[in-house]
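Recap from last week: sequence in, structure out.
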Amino acid sequence: MRLKTFRTPLAAAATLAAVLAGGPVFAQEEPAPITGDPVAEPGLELRGKLDGDRYDVWANVLGLTPHGAEETYTVYCIDIRTPLDTESPYEEGHWEESGVANLEAVRWVLFNGYPNVGAEDLIEDAGGEVNPDWTDEETVKVAYAGTQAAVWHFTDDWDLLEDNPVKGGNNGEDEAVLAVYEHLTEEPGRVPDPSEYIVDLEGEEDATYVDGRFGPYTVRSNAGPVALEADGGRLEKENGDIADSLDDGEQFWIALDDNSSEITVTGTAAYDLPVGRVFLATTEASLSGDAANRVISGESQKLILAQPREGEVPAEWRFALDAPTDRPSESGGAQLPKTGTSLTVAFAAGLALLIGGLTVTVFAKRRKAAAH
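Predicted structure tokens:
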């Protein structure tokens, strides 16, 4: 039986546990939405087309300062037709209610645009040139404008002009902004949503006991390297080195502590991802709780957070293992008896959903080794 692990978000794990238990599925309680105040710094004026007509627009450098925080985060406009509401606070909302298209493409632009890629690096990676006379602030304006133009291309079907795309951009801004725009729009990839990230384990059905170790077990992760820890033993690579961090497809072996037959293995994959968090202008009364429902502040520009959110995908496996008692033979290490699969890790106690730690624990079936 193949071992399943925690899959983010919590609702996915709750679904799995409920299906196994035959009970209802309860949704995860969502944290309170973030609120904050928008800020805008002068940027570059871009020339483009919207619905087949000329449509020029300022790519001002936008930010959002969350209430109760000092740091200002970079955001982008995802609604080119309406102005920024600088008089109202903004509140985090859902992408669906924003009515904006192409979330996947926008995520990719944000992940590969400024500020997730430094301003100079972005321009140079796109094949553009950084004018040595530009200040750091001017370089940021160029990188931001190219990224904003790419965002508008996908959210509003707006196209940047190839000829003189920046008003007054005859100091290298024209070429650099266009290079960034084309770099981010020509072949957009796909950035997974955190709900698609997994940390998994394979190899339970084929693992054996050789020279004092159980294994191998294969780590599966699409969320990056997995940090591993063990309680009750140690995890080793094939050459005997400690396995404290493994990439997708790499393997580890279990060596139990003396007089121990159980081990708990935890794995954690950390990721940084701009998840497309949308912010909509609202009213002070709504934020104070006086309004029964949130009140949107008229026709106001929608914003999307560009900077990455840190997150983790945790997993936990608990093994109860019995090593064969006979000593290694001349032909090799002692093997588990061939009465079935060489080492089967199966569900015995079912799945325990640990709400506080956001993990799913799998209890391994303890298998007795028969004497030869």
